């Protein structure tokens, strides 16, 4: 039997608490730093995932522009690393994470 890592055990617990319908959103949030890198992860977060579309909150217009330029790359990273089908990604400015 394979031993589960602590991060996958935590993800499983969160999914059980939040519901299976939120699995993709949880996976995106838990892996956001791996997808975008430390600096961008500090300035943004996945707000919503619905109908194969990702909605990302960004701290300001500078980071919004940076993410827009990397949009295709980010979609491909999500597909490759998380095996999720993402059709599009949208960004909006939100001052801080709640």
- Quote the average pLDDT: 86
Main β-sheet, in a few words?
Answer: 3 strands, mixed
The percent range for strand residues is 15-25%
Contiguous runs where pLDDT drops below 50 for at least 5 residues: none
The spatial strand order of the largest sheet comes to 1-2-3
How large, in whole angstroms, is the Cα Rg? Answer: 14 Å
In quaternary terms, these chains amount to single chain
What is the helix content? 55-70%
* Spatial gap, N to C terminus: 39 Å
Helix and strand run: HHHEEHHE
Structural category: alpha+beta
Work out the number of β strands. 3
Outline type: globular
**How many individual helices?**
5
Describe the structure using short key phrases.
single chain; alpha+beta; 98 residues; 3-stranded mixed β-sheet
Explain how this protein is built:
There is one protein chain. The protein has helices at 6-18, 23-36, 38-43, 61-69, 71-82, and strands spanning 44-50, 53-58, 88-93. The N and C termini lie far apart (39 Å). Strand 1 (44-50) and strand 2 (53-58) form a beta hairpin. The radius of gyration is 14 Å and the shape is globular. The chain is built from 5 helices and 3 strands; from the N terminus they run αααββααβ. It has a 3-stranded mixed sheet with strand order 1-2-3. With 98 residues, the chain is an alpha+beta fold.
């Amino acid at each position: 039997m394979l031993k589960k890592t602590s991060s996958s055990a935590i993800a499983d617990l969160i999914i059980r608490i939040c519901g299976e319908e939120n699995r993709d959103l949880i996976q995106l949030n838990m892996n956001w730093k791996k997808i975008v890198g430390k600096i961008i992860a500090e300035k943004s977060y996945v707000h919503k995932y619905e109908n194969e579309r990702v909605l990302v909150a960004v701290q300001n217009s500078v980071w919004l522009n940076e993410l827009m330029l990397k949009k295709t790359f980010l979609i491909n990273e999500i597909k490759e690393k998380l095996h999720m089908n993402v059709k599009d990604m949208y960004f909006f400015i939100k001052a801080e994470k709640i």
